[in-house]
Known about the structure:
The complex is a heterodimer of chains A (307) and B (133). Chain A has 307 residues and is α/β, with parallel strands linked by helices. Chain A is 35% helix and 14% strand. A 5-stranded parallel sheet of chain A has the order 7-6-5-8-9, covered by helices on one side. Chain A has a 4-stranded parallel sheet with strand order 2-1-3-4. In chain A, strand 5 (154-158), helix 6 (165-174) and strand 6 form a beta-alpha-beta unit. In chain A, helix 1 (15-30) crosses helix 5, helix 2 (54-65) crosses helix 10 (285-303) and helix 5 crosses helix 10 (285-303). Chain A is globular. The N and C termini of chain A lie close together (10 Å). In chain B, the strands form 2 sheets. Chain B has a 5-stranded antiparallel sheet with strand order 2-3-1-4-5. In chain B, strands 6-7-8-9 form a 4-stranded antiparallel sheet, with no helix packed on it. In chain B, a hairpin with a 4-residue loop joins strand 7 and strand 8 (117-120). Chain B has 2 helices and 9 strands. The radius of gyration of chain B is 17 Å and the shape is elongated. Chain B has helices spanning 10-14, 53-59, and strands at residues 2-6, 26-34, 38-45, 64-69, 72-78, 84-86, 107-112, 117-120, 126-127. The A-B interface holds A 86-88, 105-110, 112-113, 116, 127-130, 193-195, 198-199, 235 and B 93-101, 103-104, 111, 119-126.
Amino acid sequence: MLKNRSLIDPNDFTREEFREIFDLGHQIIADPAKYSKSCEGKILATLFYEPSTRTRLSFETAMLRLGGQVIGFSEAASSSTAKGESIADTLRTVECYADIAAMRHPKEGAPRLASHYIHMPLINAGDGGHQHPTQTLTDILTIERLRGNVENKTYGFCGDLKFGRTVHSLVKFLSNYEGVKFIFISPEELRVPEYIREEVVRKRGIPFQEVDQMEPYMNQLDFLYMTRVQRERFFNEEDYIRLKDRFILDKEKMSYARPDTYILHPLPRVNEISTEVDDDPRAQYFQQAKNGMYVRMALILKLLGIY
Amino acid sequence: MSSTTLPPATESRCSYLNLDKADYNVALICNAYSQKMGKKDIIKINNVIDINYDFLGLIDPNATVNIIEEGKTIKKVKLEVPDRVENIIRCKNPRCVTSVEHYFPHVFHLVDKEKRSYRCEYCDDIVVPYPVK
Lengths: 307, 133
């Protein structure tokens, strides 16, 4: 039963509960009109303490396409946070107005903290370099549409794996499934955090490699998940400049990949995928963004207990 | 009166119990004979004090607390590495929400009993507050 639950971490729901969300997501894609009035009279609050294009618009569009309405703010400066209000007080106030909320915050764990102070469903829309569970829903729905299921596949993750919250959430999620293997491609400084490598991957006995080259591993992958090196996560600009263009996926590197290796990216993309790759049918990142809206529609419906 | 039995490195650990500031009698006995460990250290506290067993178990899970009344041991508490600790450890991750909001408990969950490592409830950062020596 997902009604009135919050999604803060990919381990908050069981496999069966996620299955319900994905099944509904596929049904919405098949017949979106059927759901266009499902959320009439309901309000979603989007509380974005950090800039976002895709995630915020995706949540807002999802609610509007369900017939609901949206309130919220898109940066901390335009909220009472600028006056020094605590996260707990902001959320308790918003709960007076809205039925469900999506929250993004630059500090890790902020949505978990907020969830302790409210009763309405809260969705973590990204917390610093920590987790981004609804991007994971997006990724999984895309994987299922491309290859049927997530099991028995090799996933490559490339770029900033240290601060890449989408990677952390996706690895956590995939680690619950049989036959998955991971290849982590990154500079040494941007490897996956210890809690992901030791407490999630190694503890569950999942085969993985940590490497610093792309080409030799391209033909082993079912999916290559590219990520951006995020300037906003670095305290030191020099480190960012040194690392930002370490891995760039271009046509030449794509020639090493199999015909059925799909490229995913949570977006926004900067330089890490050359635009010449966009026309390759294996590049699925824009379709992925569209799937994100559908799966968020499914999540909202489930957490509100409408479906 | 109560006495606490701790292995070596006891003296520095007395400060965690604020015994260095105590206004009652505290006796420290080093290298006493122990059947189990060969030798042990004993802190004898001549007072009724509140002991946070989670805190003490975190510092040294091998310690035993003996509660003594009128010369007799009325209770023995075998300490353990706690599964969850609240407001004992602080998260050092500068990106953690605990670095900017200060009105809620700092909660950590045990990850590895042998290493005594803990995970921050909010940011998942792993810390080893009192490394095993």
